[in-house]
Amino acid sequence: MGEPTDPDVDLHVPVRRPGSGRTQIPVAAVVALGGAIGASARYGASLLWPTAAGGLPWTTLGVNAVGCAVIGVFMVVISEVWVAHRLVRPFFGTGVLGGFTTFSTYAVDIQQLVDGGRARTGLAYLGLTLLLALVAVWSAAWATRRIVTWRQA
Amino acid sequence: MVIIGAVVGAPTRYLTDMAVQKRHDTVFPWGTFAVNVAGCLILGVLTGAVSEEAASDSVRLLIGTGFCGTLTTYSTFSYETMRLAEAAARFFAAANVIASVGAGLGAAFAGVALAEAAWA
């Protein structure tokens, strides 16, 4: 299994070990570009499906679950199958998916629900996001590995 | 506004993760933990400021949706948790979930309280 723990920065792989200074500029640039795309998609989703005041933030929940499923597929493919250009992983994994999903809105939305006297909705949202995110990343990675093994057999 | 915030937030996450990993080369993903908690604190302060009408809607989009949204990540957090669990580092996987959610929530509550104290 060649997949790393941290999909963004893996200092244990010499090729991935970031050099200093100038070599980091193209990586930071594609991360920024990917982040802009991911954040725009997340903002677009929040405009398309606005969350009712005091309600469970389904849109953020969906965005985070989808982002976790996609990173599960992406990391298996890029680690086991596809020898991609060195900027593909920073662009898509770190930039697009990192920008699409969000932890800060998740935490502050829980705070707002609890503060507004909706502690039960806040707790349900807390647990449901965690559960769906972990199930999404795990099942997506598992299914992708199965397909990869089956195709290589 | 969202795009300007995102263009700054995403590389800040990448560079912070790298800087933290260089200093703390451990099994525990401190880099992602650090950006997530920091983002929760900043968004908490901003949300408190918005509710006290001390911050405008465009500032909310710039710093909240754009910067904090891209500075923090759920996809990397869940992927790292899965990899820790698979690497038989179950303790670290559970610790990552509990510490990230606990510290993130703590930072969000502290941020809102700070802002309300400052602008009330």
Overall structural class of chain B, as computed from helix and strand content, comes to mainly alpha
What string gives the helices and strands of chain A in order? HHHHH
Radius of gyration of chain B: 15 Å
Provide the domain count of chain B: 1
Distance between the termini of chain B: 27 Å
Q: Give the domain tally of chain A.
A: 1
* Biggest β-sheet strands, sense, barrel of chain A: none
Strand content of chain B: under 5%
Overall average pLDDT of chain A = 91
Approximately what portion of the residues of chain A adopt beta-strand conformation?
Answer: under 5%
Helix content of chain B: over 70%
Instruction: Note the main sheet of chain B.
Output: none
Biggest chain contact: A-B, 62 and 61 residues
- Can you count the beta strands of chain B? 0
Low-confidence stretches of chain B: none
Report on this structure:
Chain A is mostly helical and 153 residues long. The mean pLDDT of chain A is 91. Chain A has one domain. Chain A is built from 5 helices and no strands. In chain A, helix 1 runs parallel beside helix 3, helix 2 runs parallel beside helix 5 and helix 4 packs antiparallel against helix 5. In chain B, helix 1 runs parallel beside helix 3 and helix 2 packs antiparallel against helix 3. At the A-B interface, helix 1, helix 2, helix 3, helix 4 and helix 5 of A face helix 1, helix 2, helix 3, helix 4 and helix 5 of B. Chain A: Belongs to the fluoride channel Fluc/FEX (TC 1.A.43) family.
Please render the helix and strand layout as text.
The complex is a heterodimer of chains A (153) and B (120).
Chain A: H1 24-48, H2 58-81, H3 88-100, H4 104-115, H5 119-152
Chain B: H1 2-23, H2 30-51, H3 57-71, H4 75-86, H5 90-119
Helix pairs in contact in B: 1-2, 1-3, 2-3, 2-5, 4-5
Short descriptors:
A: 153 residues, 5 helices, B: 120 residues, mainly alpha, 0% strand, transport (chain A), metal-binding (chain A)
